[in-house]
Design the sequence.
């Protein structure tokens, strides 16, 4: 079974620029998460999708962050414009079905904003 | 809002000794408590989990205990090995319409050969 795929793995941008991350979950996994992990901290949930619908985006800074999951499969997370404090690893995770809690994480995208 | 605290933030043990990491949670409706291990530069991976209807669970050298009354749970690693060195995250989740998971800040464990 292929794991969660993410791209790019690394990205360096200047503040006020835009950036987009892509995630392909494990096939058949209905739930998809985007987390922000700042160095030395635990993953912080940004947004959670159930199929192609958003079920939790309470911690997503909606003035600059957006995410979509077209057709309930792949997902993209966008930051526009980026700030210095957005420097972090952005992790995508997926889960097979509600009630089965194990999340499978992708390798993450390390974003550096200069 | 919901919160998970974790202690200690760093832990060093001699190889062969035991390591204990403790977490507390604020949401009394939480009923699932996973532990993730994250090696340097790698993704978090689930190592063990426990549900609220169980007080203890063991898997070889790893065990987790849960005290729902006190709202705390712990990870125990016995006979530690250098490859146990990593950051460990506890988390708490509740079965709601969207099964939200809250992660603790992590414990950096170093096992000294």
Sequence:
């Amino acid at each position: 079974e292929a794991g969660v795929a993410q791209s790019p793995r690394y990205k360096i941008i200047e503040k006020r620029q835009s950036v987009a991350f892509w995630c392909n979950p494990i096939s058949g996994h209905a739930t998809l998460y985007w987390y922000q992990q700042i160095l030395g901290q635990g993953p912080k949930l940004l947004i959670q999708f159930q199929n192609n619908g958003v079920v939790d985006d309470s911690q997503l800074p909606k003035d600059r962050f957006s995410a979509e999951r077209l057709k309930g499969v792949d997902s993209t997370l966008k930051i526009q414009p980026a700030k210095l404090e957005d420097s972090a690893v952005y992790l995508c995770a997926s889960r097979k079905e509600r009630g089965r809690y194990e999340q499978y994480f992708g390798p993450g995208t390390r974003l550096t904003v200069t | 809002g919901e919160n998970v605290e974790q202690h200690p933030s760093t832990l060093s043990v001699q190889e062969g000794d035991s390591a204990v990491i403790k977490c507390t949670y604020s949401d009394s409706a939480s009923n699932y408590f996973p532990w993730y291990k994250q090696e340097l530069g790698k993704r978090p991976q689930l190592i063990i989990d426990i549900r609220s209807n169980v007080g203890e669970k063991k898997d070889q050298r790893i065990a987790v205990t849960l005290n729902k009354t006190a709202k705390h749970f712990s990870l125990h690693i016995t006979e530690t090995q250098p490859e146990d060195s990593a950051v460990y995250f506890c988390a708490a989740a509740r079965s709601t319409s969207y099964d939200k998971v809250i992660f603790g800040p992590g414990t950096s464990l170093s096992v000294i050969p």
Remarks:
- Chain A has a mean pLDDT of 92.
- The longest strand of chain A covers residues 88-95.
- Chain A touches chain B at residues 31, 33, 40-45, 48, 50, 55-56, 91, 95, 98-99, 101-103, 105-108 (CB under 8 Å).
